[in-house]
User: What shape does this take?
Amino acid sequence: MDIVRNGERPSVYGDPAYFSGTVRQDPIVTCPEPARARAVIVTFEPGGRTAWHTHPLGQTLHVLSGYGLVQKEGEPVQVIRPGDTVWIPPGERHWHGASPEIAMCHLAIHEALDGKHIDWEEHVTDEEYNAPRAD
Assistant: This one.
């Protein structure tokens, strides 16, 4: 058993190679092998978002606060709100983040495959980010 006490894990700011705007990550757990789970609370300031990416074993997002956006490639941008849970299947190209005006915080859960949990791609353009939203 391993207990990590509150305050023992520092917050990390999102790498600008993979995130636009201000994004803070607060790790919850990264399980040692053979377990594969990883969970992190991610806070996106208004306008903050991920780059396009995929996950080899999928990802679950659970919105904790704010007003967020998520998009699967080829589909409209979707609005996500507190209490919403989003399942993103393995290999599905997507992005997620806050709205332009309101911050968003979500719990992100995913697993690693052969030590890899994410494949990053190019940044989401302003045109893609500001596209009409399905509500």
In short: The domain at 12-122 is CATH 2.60.120.10 (Jelly Rolls). The first strand starts at residue 12 and ends at 13.
